[in-house]
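Hi team,

Below is the intake form for PPPDE domain-containing protein from Ceratopteris richardii. Please confirm the fields before the structure is written into the shared record.

FORM ID: S-0412
PROTEIN: PPPDE domain-containing protein
ORGANISM: Ceratopteris richardii
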Amino acid sequence: MQRTSSSFRIAIDLNIYDLTTLNNYLYWFELGMFHSTIEIKGVEYAYGAHDMPTSGIFQVEPRSCPGFMFRRSILLGTTDLSPIEIYDLMEDLASQYTGDAYNMISPKTLCLPESLQVAMVQQPLEYHSSEDL
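The structure came back. Fields below:
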């Protein structure tokens, strides 16, 4: 992907959601069940399941992913990709993240945020303990 020569930077946030209210208790044992999304310029991108071999990536209003309880956001960094380049990146990733391949206990469910982080910020995603959540 070719970068444009622009001076603007767009924040990239990792949004964390609780899958269950049990997280309020599991937190004390540094455990929990979470869903994560990426928020870029007022659009939140998530990966989820469906029965078709088409993209499982979808967009939602920031901090309101259906079926989950918003916990917090973590700033991952900024990018100089333009909105068009971000859209193109999401289109490229769509074929890799199909709805029929989604598995809640597979490491691939965290790979969408990591793929976006590496592509846009040019550094790997830093993993946080549940203490940070």
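SUMMARY LINE: The CA atoms of residues 2 and 85 lie 8 Å apart.

Thanks, M.
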